[in-house]
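REQUEST ID: PR-0412
SUBMITTED BY: lab tech R.K.
PRIORITY: routine
TASK: structure prediction, single protein chain
INPUT:
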Amino acid sequence: MQIKPRQHLLDIWQAISRHSFAAGSWEWGDPDSRSSVADAERLLCLMYPATEIPAFRLDDPDTTERDVQTALKNAGGRVEIPAKLVSILGDFMHNHTTDDKRPSFAGGHYFVSADPDLELTEEQRSIGVVDSFSMSITLCLATLGFLKVYSGKTRRTDVRAQIEELRAATETRLTAAMVSLLRSFTVNVFDPDEPQGRTLCGVLGQGRMSERVVVERFQRRFEALRATIGESLTLGVDIADRLKDENQLFECGWAWTLVKEAPPVDTTEPIGPQPIGTARPIPYLYFTVVALDGIQDLFSDRTLTLGLLTAEQQRLAEALRLRWEITQQYWSGIARFNEATWPLEDIPWRTTGQRLESEYFSLCVASILVHDLVRRRATDDDLTRTVAVMERLAERGRISSRLMVGDKAVHLHSPGIRLPLQGSSETGNPMQWTMGDFSAMLLKRSIQLCTLSRNITSHDRLLRLAEKIFDHMWKRRINAGVGTGLWDNVGSVFPEANVDPMELSWGVTERVIECMVAGRQLYVQSPIRSSDLINYASWLLSEATHLLGNEQLEPTSALDASRGLALKGVEVKLNRARDLVDRQPGTAVALTMEILGELDGLALARQTASRGV
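STATUS: complete
OUTPUT:
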């Protein structure tokens, strides 16, 4: 199924409009089934495309496209929609603020009890989670950009007052989310003889290297990074002295929430009291990927161009950027630890902190590698090998291969991978986090790799893979009842999945939205250029230019005006082909072939006329 970002986004927006604006006003739904994560995901389904894609802008009613108005007709007219968004976003900020005026990042119903017979307490459900920190950064930046434009387009005094109140609340939430991400980052140091050390040595050695050789190679490979971490990371994290011991192994990334005993971050912004941390200082691959996705929005071109960050937020953003780069370098090095056979290619990945094994964790490591490949302009070899990993993950996840009877791959999608949240038992019943977005994440990374690839073979493989995954995802839309046209009806492609086919997931829906935004970026960039095709186009252009000059030497009768017009048209097309030869050589070839045909027709007509005289 071909990915058509504009049309598919319009279809999704129309479904959101039917669901959330059924009676003309926004409906949040049952308060007991809400969380700051789900509410942010739901709002981002509208705000992310509206701020990332010019054709979907909602901040300037005069430029709202007609098909966008049609898709959101349940929300009102083009003038009403932005005013309603201001009110809805204001409700979100108010609903997720604690009694002591501190932004709340509660996981809510996304937290589940490890024991299904035991309930979680309200205190546990109110614990902040990295998903919410990261989502809040993206949502707050989208909101600030939206307000920056819309505030200059409306003259309604009541709306302008709401805008100023929303802007202040959004800036506070953004700062609080950044501080929380700083305090959730951790570096876990362990001995090679500890269980974590033995697991990491096994992943890196793949049964081909002894533990001693692995430790020696680890020391050499991460010597500079170890020094950078020890010298540069001081904000929001307490680096253990054990990191200085080169015989120790380490991992870095994000825990599931604030790390226990993580020091408060000094800030001049009024974000309220900073909560005490809960999580053990152990990184999670899933939460690390989520954090990296949110942090990169802080230094996107849009954020910098619009000047969305205050001076204090810029300071915090630089601290997060350092962690962003360190984490990518570390996991990219781990994924490609051996040149002959990457540990990433040894599917499934085994985690050290939680001692779990799954294709989902291979996808998490691959996602971090994709971040790093984009950052440092990947080589063709890196891309080719990463493409093969993506294809194998699609096959093992039964997205591009046939589902077998009793296939355990179904558990990747439903109920998803369950993560034990280490440290949560100190607050009550042990908690877990469920990850059921394997297909959507694989689609997003495949599209991002396709955008990055400038090798025609890898590009085509990735595009075919992305289209297969998208076809799989499109079949998983809910087809009846609440949430029709949204996600996630897993049972439509995996009949063996024991799930409610009508259960609406804003998490999966929002990730599909991200895929469409990434798909738009894929198509707006210049197509891959072939040097052979450029040379071929240049030879054709040379011949066409010569033949045109030859035809222009021939006399043209005043009675034969059509020949003069034809030559003028050929000249215009030839200039157009010359302009395109470097950017779109294939188009230049097509135009030049057409030109050569027209010139041959003119030459034949002239020769026929001269023989008939």
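NOTES: The chain has 22 helices and seven strands.
REVIEWED BY: pending
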